[in-house]
TrEMBL record:
<comment type="pathway">
    <text>Carbohydrate degradation; L-rhamnose degradation.</text>
</comment>
<dbReference type="GO" id="GO:0019301">
    <property type="term" value="P:rhamnose catabolic process"/>
</dbReference>
<dbReference type="InterPro" id="IPR036291">
    <property type="entry name" value="NAD(P)-bd_dom_sf"/>
</dbReference>
<keyword id="KW-0521">NADP</keyword>
<keyword id="KW-0684">Rhamnose metabolism</keyword>
<dbReference type="InterPro" id="IPR002347">
    <property type="entry name" value="SDR_fam"/>
</dbReference>
<dbReference type="Pfam" id="PF13561">
    <property type="entry name" value="adh_short_C2"/>
</dbReference>
<dbReference type="GO" id="GO:0048038">
    <property type="term" value="F:quinone binding"/>
</dbReference>
<comment type="similarity">
    <text>Belongs to the short-chain dehydrogenases/reductases (SDR) family.</text>
</comment>
<dbReference type="GO" id="GO:0006633">
    <property type="term" value="P:fatty acid biosynthetic process"/>
</dbReference>
<dbReference type="GO" id="GO:0016616">
    <property type="term" value="F:oxidoreductase activity, acting on the CH-OH group of donors, NAD or NADP as acceptor"/>
</dbReference>
<keyword id="KW-0560">Oxidoreductase</keyword>
<protein>
    <recommendedName>
        <fullName>L-rhamnose 1-dehydrogenase (NAD(P)(+))</fullName>
        <ecNumber>1.1.1.378</ecNumber>
    </recommendedName>
</protein>
Length: 260
């Protein structure tokens, strides 16, 4: 098992990629603290979704807790870490994954959408990483942080002008943290998913034409699944990646390199 008896925190662990990360880590032997929010999202039943993930992890024989909190709030990171340490005694891995992508045109972008996206995606990654790193430093035996950046850190999107800079920022945050935290043996890396079918882009991909367009552009011929990303996060979190820090791994079925 790649994460036997490790303690993992996953932000945005209630669904999508974060849920898959939480379950994949448990399958590899970890206990998991998952964070979620969803305050303004009426599209799904928040608590029952969270309970399902907790049940799935417990069915794998591992312990799990859920901690509600908006990662954009600076206090959420320390609270999440404190609750994790209270439950499991330590933190070995952070998967900083929570994020939003409310598609919107640039020229009339409301400032509130821009600011919330920045606060959740980049501010959230910063504060939670800082809190987890302080705990890992105090433990004294290293750790691993894996952030969910995106292919969008490298390429643009006309309806994502508020979003793509946050994903470039997350990538850059992991690079700088790799330097800042290397002396404490804390590795910092990111994954860059391509187009993964989740609630985040369900509306955008509800057009059969757009979905088919993406499938044509992806050399491996299909949209990504959350577990495609989760398995790479497990690898980067594990000792298999013991000499990997400051790296970013595209998990996109080849989408990025497909010019023609
Ligand atoms: N889907 C894709 O194609 C890609 C996604 N990504 C990135 O992957 C990450 C996960 O996205 P994905 O799984 O697709 O999206 P989902 O919408 O399926 O899941 C998002 C998760 O983030 C949580 N979340 C949202 N806002 C907050 C907040 N303020 N505080 C705490 N948790 C929050 C949600 O919690 P709740 O359920 O409670 O709302 C949910 O668990 C994001 O960072 C996204 O940018 C990157 C590249 C491609
Ligand atoms: C929400 C998008 O469909 C998704 O998120 C990203 O980060 C990439 O831009 C994907 O296409």
């Amino acid at each position: 098992m790649l994460l036997h008896n490790k303690v993992v925190i996953v932000t945005g662990g209630s669904r999508g990629i974060g849920r898959a990360i939480a379950v994949a880590c448990a399958r590899e032997g970890a206990d998991v603290a998952l964070n979620y929010w969803g305050e303004n999202d009426a599209s799904y039943e928040k608590r029952s979704a969270v309970d399902e993930v907790l049940d799935e992890i417990k069915a794998l024989g591992r312990r799990a807790i859920a901690v509600e909190g908006n990662v954009a709030e600076p206090a959420t990171g320390p609270e999440l870490v404190a609750r994790t340490v209270e439950a499991f005694g330590r933190v070995d891995v952070l998967a900083s994954n929570a994020g939003i992508c409310p598609f919107h045109a640039f020229l009339d972008m409301p400032s509130a959408i821009f600011e919330t996206t920045l606060a959740v995606n980049l501010g959230g990654a910063f504060y939670v990483t800082q809190a987890a790193a302080n705990q890992m430093k105090q433990q004294g035996d290293g750790g691993a942080i894996v952030a969910t950046s995106s292919i969008s850190a490298l390429v643009g999107g006309g309806m994502q002008t508020h979003y793509t800079p946050t994903k470039a920022g997350v990538h850059s945050l992991m690079q700088s943290c790799a330097i800042a935290l290397g002396p404490y043996k804390i590795r910092c890396n990111s994954v860059m998913p391509g187009t993964i079918a989740t609630d985040l882009n369900a509306d955008d991909l509800s057009s059969a034409e757009k979905k088919a367009y993406f499938e044509r552009r992806i050399p491996l011929g299909r949209l990504g699944r959350p577990d495609d990303v989760a398995d790479v996060v497990v690898f980067l979190a594990s000792d298999m990646a013991r000499y990997v820090t400051g790296a970013a791994l595209l998990v996109d079925g080849g989408l990025f390199v497909n010019l023609q």
